[in-house]
Amino acid sequence: MAVGLRALILLPLCFPGLQGQNSEAQRRREGGTLYIQCSYARRVAGRDTKYWCLLKDGGCEKIVNTYSEYTRQNKDKRTQISDDITNETVSITMTDLKAEDSGTYFCAYYDYSYGYIPIRTISLNVFKELLMWELDTLSVQCPQIYGTAWCRMGQTMQCTKRQTSSWRSASKSLQDRVSIETNAQRIPIVTMKQLQISDSGVYWCAGGSGLTRTLEVVLSVFKRTQQLSAKVSETISVQCHYKITDYGAVTKAWCKMEGETCNVLATTSSEPSAENSTARDSVRIQDDRQQGIVTVTMQQLQLQDSGVYWCALQEPSALSRMEEVTLSVSRAQPQGRLADTENKSQDTLVGEARCSDSTFIIVTVVLLLLLLLSLVTSTALGVRHYKLLLRTGNREAEDTRDRAQGTAQPGSTGRRESSDSKESGYINLDVQTQPSPEDPLYCNVEPSQAPRNPQCVEYAVIAFNQSPRSTKE
Prior knowledge:
This protein has helices spanning about 5-15, 170-175, 245, 335-405, and strands spanning about 25-30, 35-40, 50-55, 60-65, 80-85, 90-95, 105-110, 115-135, 140, 150, 160, 180, 190, 200-205, 210-220, 225-230, 235-240, 250-260, 260-265, 285-290, 295-300, 305-315, 320-330. It has 4 domains: about 5-125, Immunoglobulins (Immunoglobulin-like), CATH 2.60.40.10; about 135-220, Immunoglobulin-like (Sandwich), CATH 2.60.40.10; about 225-330, Immunoglobulin-like (Sandwich); about 405-465, no CATH class. The strands form 5 sheets. Strands 1, 3, 4, 7, 8, 10, 11, 14 and 15 form a 9-stranded mixed beta sheet that branches. It has about 475 residues and is an alpha+beta fold. It contains 4 helices and 23 strands.
């Protein structure tokens, strides 16, 4: 923050309105926006000018006010202020925030007796968010404060000062990679080299006797990775990139992780080690210092070559990872067997398709034939049933007439007593009219009414008794 401990103590003394107020903490990422509202008391007249101030040297450094938009600190127009007299509220918007905007701010109005009277106070912290790769170099400009230090936040604050160039409770590896220098404008510059994933964290520029925080940096370091796959007996080639200016003259190495240790398999050093002579037969490494590319070639791969590898910088103290490569080696399938398998699969699919088509046609034809047969059968049964109904109706009608009259009348149908009997069938006729002898008389017998196996000849004797004619004497 841009305010020191002394300024915080003097703040309520210089501004009585701040007594009893707590500074609100506001944290924003660089490039973000701050929007706050300040509600003023009713005793403040709506026509009074409202101010947005930065606390500096115990006083109000005016950023913007409701009377005039132009102020010394607002030339870039990143801060806007508006006064809602109806709701008695002042609104302030700060856009495109920068790390140097960190500090203590307050809304205020002016009183001729007391000067600037604070309405609301906030502590703004704008932090830098930096995303870096392993082995990159971090460079940060810190605010100009006496005794600049670079501190890392943790359970205990670890700091290094430019004067001593030493870390408090810091690891030696980090101590060797951090430096603080000043440029021609006497601005402190913090430099961290050969960044590692373990360097990710929150850092501060600090200064003064109490190491007051002035600039916060949130650092995230990522590793470069590659995923490779190959078959047994194949050859792979891996390329790793680096910055020529930083690491052109440094020895490069190719190593395989075994637990927490990376065992070197090949190196660009002209003095190969005896323990790695066997590995060098199948592993080669080349360093193109003109383009900043390390090329590693592995031949005749085996299943046991699967694992995690590093392209690394080889220094006397330790290995520094450039890129992490994950290699997966699998068994090679014979090409002929693969082709046969594919052909068999295709033949099986074609055969299944043809079999499926033939089965569908056969089933369709059978179903159609069964449907046609069922229709014909149903029609035949219907016709037969209809005929039986007609025949049964005629018989019932004849039986009804016979029972009612006993004998058949001339001009009506005779009744057969027994058509299925083995005895001779006969028909009784009762002629009520007087036909002439010459008139023929017929008797119709249906074939169905005759017995199937006649024992004797059926016949009918019809006799007409001549009644005496009445004559007039």
